[in-house]
Amino acid sequence: MQANEVTTERLRRLAQVRPRNGGKVLSVYVDLEPSEFATPPARATAITSVLDEAERELRDAASLEHEARAGLKSGLERVRTFLEQEFDASGAHGVALFCDSGQDLFEALKLPVGVGHKAVIDDAPFVEPLAGLDADSRFLVVLCNRRVGRLLFGSADRMTEVARIESDVHGQHRRGGLSQPRYERSVDNEAMHHIRRVGELVKRRFGQRALDGVLIGAPEETVARVQDELPSSVRGRVAGRLELDVETASPEDVVRSARDVMQRIEREREDEALARLREGLSGGPRPAAARIADVLEALNQRRVETLLIAAGTTAPGRECPRCGWLGVGGDECPADGTPTIARQDIVGPAVQRALLQSADVRYLARREADGEPVVASQLDMYGGIGAVLRF
Ligand SMILES: [Zn+2]
Fold it and tell me: Residue 303's closest CA among 330, 323, 280, 320?
């Protein structure tokens, strides 16, 4: 059992999980923030306290049927075994685990930030804290010289090297027997072939993915060529160049060198989305929805392109267990008349629905400009939630 990293794709897949025969899902989050839980004993205490909470949840969940309860109980034992014996906490700021009462699902994800301790039993995986980490997977860095190509993926906080290729290029050394111009032509052809390979790798791995920005680290004479070889969807996101040693730079070096530009792009994206939200709400050509009731309605109609949530927003609501309809009130589903289920927090199901619809979900952190709170306060006008719509 391997602890996976959070990716948008994995989040979308988790958001779609619905246990067979109306079974239940246990979601467990353990906070391992190194500033608080640096030592193994501190981590062990954190794990124990979350497992205790999960046991209480299981005991107190009055509506659970016998079979679901028994299934979740053995799921919890698996979670315990995994955390106590198999899990390697190195590099993790938290871990999220999901298991279902039918024993079909067991998944562990290492988290790049701590998201607090939590144990939740529900009809579907509780992925809301993870969607907040979506920003984790929005930047691509391509490092490429005439011989080596490396792809790093991540955020302003952390980059991970996801691919590396090396090509057998003769390099700068002169070989006997070739006249200088002919030799240089041959090296150029080989370097070109290598850069094309890197471009194809980017296309395969990232051609379909929504990226906020792409940064290229390449020698002066190579950078334009690298950019040309990227697939057009990725090329359109190129935001700048990094001055780094292509072959030896560590992921930490990349973060240090790219952080400012990544943070600037994140903010531009947030501001853009907020501007589109305001325009849409004041009758602009591309519609938008604000406040929980209208946003849920737009999700029911599958119209949401970007879901914007001020960090920490929650709201009560109701969900139809049959068709997934979401609303703030109504004992019966307006679509099929099924009695609806009350949810203490409907923002979580709304995020799941948005991920299912391939919408972009952005949690906006509170930040300040010139000492004034921005972003979140703009969303606060709408109860902390808004959506830019596709139509
Ligand atoms: Zn319904």
Answer: 280
